Amino acid sequence: MGDFQPETATLVGKACRGDRDAFAALMERYQEGVFGHLLSRCGDPGRAQEVTQDAFVTAFTTLTRLEKPSSFRSWVIGIGINLLRRRKKEIANIDLLQGAQDGREDGLGALASNEQLNAVRQAIDDLPDNYRTALMMHYFDKQRGKAIGEELGVSEGAVHMILLRARKALSEKLKDFDPGND
Asked: Cα-atom radius of gyration of the chain, to the nearest Å?
């Protein structure tokens, strides 16, 4: 019985009442997953780590705004994604742009790859929250239907339908994408 872990909602409730140890337990439980999501979006471990920390700080200071305590993980990921979006304008890959301007093949190829990656990221960002969460948990966290269903508050069967619809929506958003041909 030494492996008992309080439910997320219980920890959130305690943290809302000022229990710093409860929030520390939430961080310990979810920090790695939040980092993984953010890393998959930005591709920069240092930046992902920084934004993960900032997301948890923001979560700590706004925890009472969380409407569904059992969705803490998704909520923090959402905070992190919003922070990444805001910082996107601040970050520029000078070598990539310089290579493209010089006409070097590796620069042009990297620019096309980067353009494709950005298109996929944008398409995922534009999906409804439940679609995005289901896709991220399935493909990046390697979670199964039951765990995704618990996170989304739906049945395992509904998760399969959500994933099917999410993939279809993503495919639709990307069907006309052709890098370099504007």
From this structure: 19
Q: What are the backbone dihedrals phi and psi of residue 94, each rounded to the nearest 5 degrees, phi first?
A: -65, -40
Average pLDDT score over residue span 70-81: 90
- Closest to 7 in 3D by CA, of 148, 151, 143: 151
32 contacts 73 by C-beta, under 8 angstroms = no
Eight-state DSSP code of residue 162: H
Q: Is the pTM of this model over 0.90?
A: no
Separation of alpha carbons 66 and 71, rounded Å: 8
Could you give the residue ranges of the DSSP H alpha helices within the chain?
8-16, 20-42, 45-61, 72-88, 94-102, 105-125, 129-139, 145-152, 156-174
**What whole-number distance in Å separates Cα of residue 91 and Cα of residue 86?**
10
State the greatest distance between any 2 C-alpha atoms of the chain, in Å, as a whole number: 63
> Quick check: 62 and 75 in contact, CB under 8 A?
no
* pLDDT (mean) for 66-88: 86
Q: Could you give the CA distance from residue 82 to residue 49 in angstroms, rounded to a whole number?
A: 15
